[in-house]
Specification:
With 220 residues, this protein is α/β, with parallel strands linked by helices. It contains six helices and nine strands, in the order ααββαβαβαββαβββ. The chain has one domain: Vaccinia Virus protein VP39 (Rossmann fold), CATH 3.40.50.
Length: 220
Amino acid sequence: MTFEREREQMIADIESGVAFTRTMTGRNHLDPRVMKAMRLVPREDFVPTNMRGSAFRDGALPVGHGQTISQPYIVALMTDLLELTDTSIVLEIGTGTGYQAAILSQLARQVYSIERIAELARTAQRRLSDMGYQNVETRCSDGYLGWPEKAPFDGIIVTAAAPEVPPALLAQLKPGGRMVIPIGLPYSRQELVLVTRDLQGETDTRDLLGVAFVPMVEDT
């Protein structure tokens, strides 16, 4: 199956989501480069085989180990908010199946992605490599600590909710950089937050809209 009709419906759903939330996000439309990446990356290959038929619906899907693949609209919006260029170095926290990393790889020079759950990390690395995403490097570690030896980052995207912005991640954000992260506790209100750092190193935090993410997994 090619899923072309479903893929175009996904794009239409993303555009509808952007229109519905524009007063909250400040986005009347998304960068055409982001929308092109959403079309090009085969989302159906990043969900469990028995869920391929549901891959394009505008909702999160379970991928095992209590984790999910985010709904297409949220993937597109969070990617757009990073405002990446083809020279950007970006950090992702929460590799999952590798879908978000694959999207980022179309827009940035290099993607570093951290997954705490070992089986997901192994599977995602193998999938991304087999599919030819050569500018993505993954590892299994505590996302709260970031990836300091690869810092600083032009963009940081966190695909699981934290109770607050992790200090280590904030420290690894480059001046002029942007971080997108859901903040809040599990099963309670969460906010998608945009953190920007100006060229003088000062940070600004803006709440955008309510979201629902699985919690970040932290080493204890």
